[in-house]
Amino acid sequence: MSAALLAAGESTIGPTLALIVGAGMAAQWLAWRTQVPSIVALLLAGLLLGPVTGVIDPDQLLGGTLFPLVSLSVALILFEGGLDLPPRELRNTGTVVRRLISVGAVVTFLVGWYASREIIGISNQSAIVLGAVLVVTGPTVVGPLLRFVRPSGTTGPILRAEGVLIDPIGATAALLAFEIVLLEDANEAILKVAGIMGLTLLAGAGIGIAAAFVLDEALRRFLIPDQLTVPVTFAFVVATFVAANEVQEESGLLTVTVLGMYLARRDSSTIRHVLEFSESLRTLLISTLFILLAARIEAEALREVLLPALGFIAVLVLVGRPLTVLVSTVRTSLSWRERLFLTTMAPRGIVAAAVSAIFAIRLEEEMIPDADQIVPIVFLVIIGTIVVYGFLAGPAARVLGLAEAQADGVLIAGAHATSRGLALQLKEHGIRTLLVDTDPYNVTRSISMGLSARRLSVLAENAAHDLDLRGIGRLLAFTSNDEVNALATARFARVFGRREVFQLSPTKRRSGEAGVPAEYLGRQIGINGLTYSTLDERARQGWKVRSAHVDATIQIAVDDDVFVPMVRLIDDRMAFLCRNDAVPVDGIVIGLASPSLQRQLDNEERERADVADVDQPADEADAIAESERDRAAAKPSPEPASSDLESSPDPA
User: Which one, 269, 387, 478, 588, has least CB within 10 Å?
Assistant: First the structure.
């Protein structure tokens, strides 16, 4: 009998887990297509599969292993967040970030505690724990929103650092709140808090730094083979997380964050490989966790707290966050626009969901009143803050001048003559461009032509952070060096996505093979491919970048190989034309034109101008002639020449 039950359970676990993963990826894809925050889609998927339809019951599916798996998954997510937090960002934003995660966290806790008690009406003990849980924001929701908005200045790094560092602090705050509400003696509570904080710092920071040092030395001395780098790194993450939690509960999140931040100091290909794998794993974990945790919510519990929770969310958004930013940015160098934008970004994420679920169960075991309302309130806060900030942050950044409405602009690596010609044509059609080059002449020449340009290597360590990428959503690697182009597309694929990084085709070598393997290349511009050697040769022959409406002339020019189309524009929306793309049949096309085609296009433009003059309506022509006569009549007659001479100033 037991064997039959075990077999039946195994037969349902596999399909259910497949359904969860599939639903998570479908929600992520749908969010990408519709440009809505992915967390909203994941939460809705979890609610649909859980309380609405009852297809998934996480407690029955995973039993007692649910919350250990949730905690471990959160640890891996925070490790990735720490790994993706460059030390330079912390140096530039340290003061504001330190205030946000300290005095700002206290303000958030006080507002959350008081509002939940007065507006929702839960017990004081549950309100204290709820206020501590809602201190967190989290990189899992802040990161995607920042990638979507792409604000300029230091606001992005500040919000990213706050999201990473506040999570372990919030988890520790929740533990402190839980211990405090169970104690009646004030002196005992003070000693308990001091002990927990001391052990958390000792276990979290101490074990994290020690493990990071050992792992860093092993990687630096090549004691770990390449094929084991990622598995061994994650083994360290799991081991340090468990070890820290054994010393002090909930200190493991601090440990893995410290571990990630320590390794972020290493600028090596090994760490980048770990980071690339971590990002993919993070997406999978977030998708699965949100669906599992949302599926645990009971529909009745959500309905009971829905209306008061709306008022509670309004207080957090309109009072809590502005106060937090206000006290954290006093006497700092941030402009009022940057401070105002910081108030529009404080969504809650997976850590709040996981920590609230864990401590709610423990409060229920201690018979604390209203403990069962913590989880539905937190999930409504997650949904509400993501919706509010998700739809508010973008417009707010644009109104404040910290972001552009559309990221259609192009970052062009290489500011040679052809790059400048392309940038000028794009600028004429309202497409923003930014050229970067290490040659001072190219940069100076670009600026003198009215173009935005920076003297900077596109491969510089902090290029993506140093450049003003407002309105920029694509990279075109247009340099003479094939390796630089390939590395640039690889570097900026993490900023813009692989779909939006383009480059010249690598030059064929004598053996007939390209100098850079295809697996390392971005999307190659030009419907037949376009190398720098071809670009340079045709520029010497007098070819220039021109734009024209797609018509029979352009179609014939492409067939005769006297025009190389590179960009297509329809309604001021641009798209690069890449290898194997079809020749455009409408819209405007920008490309390299031969001298003969340039003359033909100039002649056609003159003919169209002449026809427009000839076809000018008679009444309009008469009106213009009459206006000219009126102006001539009103003009005063010139004085005699002698008078002019007499009235002119002395030459001396």
Answer: 269
446 class by beta-carbon count within 10 Å (0-12 exposed, 13-18 middle, 19+ buried): buried
Q: At what angle do helices 87-100 and 155-181 cross, to 10 degrees?
A: 50
Residue from 145, 171, 201, 165 nearest 82 by CA: 165
Record the pTM. Answer: 0.74
321 close to 73: Cβ distance less than 8 angstroms: no
Q: Tens digits of per-residue pLDDT, 506-554?
A: 887 655 555 677 767 888 888 887 888 888 888 899 999 998 888 888 8
**Smallest Cα–Cα separation from 274: which of 239, 317, 229, 312?**
229
**For strand 433-437 and strand 409-413, is the pairing parallel, antiparallel, or unpaired?**
parallel
Q: Which two tokens stand for residue 38?
A: 């992915």
| Per-residue pLDDT reduced to its tens digit, 169-204 | 888 888 888 888 877 665 666 777 777 788 888 888
Q: If pLDDT is split at 50, 70 and 90, which confidence band does 411 have?
A: very high
The reported pLDDT for the residue numbered 5 is 38
Alpha helices, DSSP H, located in 116-154: 124-133, 139-149
- Do residues 412 and 419 touch, judged by C-beta distance below 8 A? yes
* Lowest-pLDDT range of 69-83, 439-453, 590-604: 69-83
Q: What are the start-end ranges of the E strands in 479-624?
A: 501-503, 523-524, 544-549, 563-570, 573-576, 588-593
Measured CA to CA, the distance from residue 533 to residue 416 in angstroms comes to 13
Spell out the long-range contacts of 421-427 with Cβ–Cβ below 8 A and sequence spacing 24 or more: 421/544, 421/545, 422/476, 422/478, 422/545, 422/566, 422/567, 422/590, 423/451, 424/449, 424/451, 424/545, 425/545, 425/546, 425/547, 425/567, 425/590, 426/567, 426/574, 426/590, 427/451
Look up tokens 């247009």; give the residue. Answer: 478
**Range with the lowest mean pLDDT among 345-359, 376-390, 543-557, 637-651?**
637-651
User: Which amino acid would we find at residue 637?
Assistant: S
User: Under a CB-based contact definition with an 8 Å cutoff, are residues 418 and 540 in contact?
Assistant: no
* DSSP H or E segment with residue 409: strand 409-413
- CA–CA dist 344, 341 (Å, integer): 5
